[in-house]
Design brief:
By secondary structure, the protein is mainly α. The chain has five helices and no strands.
């Protein structure tokens, strides 16, 4: 049963990374494929809600549930971003700058 939960963890991590790549780049994709803007708008709204209103991410909750069942160390309460990205892709104190860069890319693509 553990391999099933391990696969679930990897799928959730992949979905999270796909979301984080699509958030700043989806608007540029919409320049080429206009109908994709209808997927990008809710993604951006969710991103804004996650940053500004601290929405709880269902993917993070699913990963927190699946990791112990897969025999993996639990995901910290800080969540996916702090576990996988902060301190790896940008310095620990630069979260606000990374968020500003992502939402600036959205704004540029939409303009």
């Amino acid at each position: 049963m553990r391999p099933l939960y391990t696969a679930l963890v990897w799928l959730v991590v992949a979905a999270h990374f796909a979301f984080l790549v699509y958030l700043p780049s989806g608007g540029f994709l919409a320049l080429r494929r206009r109908r994709s803007i209808w997927l990008h708008v809710p993604v951006v709204l969710w991103g804004i809600g996650s940053v500004a209103l601290h929405f709880l991410c269902p993917l993070t909750a699913l990963e927190q549930w699946a990791r112990p069942r897969a025999g993996l160390a639990p995901l910290s309460q800080a969540g996916f971003i702090d576990h996988y990205i902060t301190g790896v892709m940008y310095p620990s104190g630069a979260t606000g700058y990374a968020q500003a860069a992502a939402f600036s890319a959205v704004l540029v693509s939409w303009v």
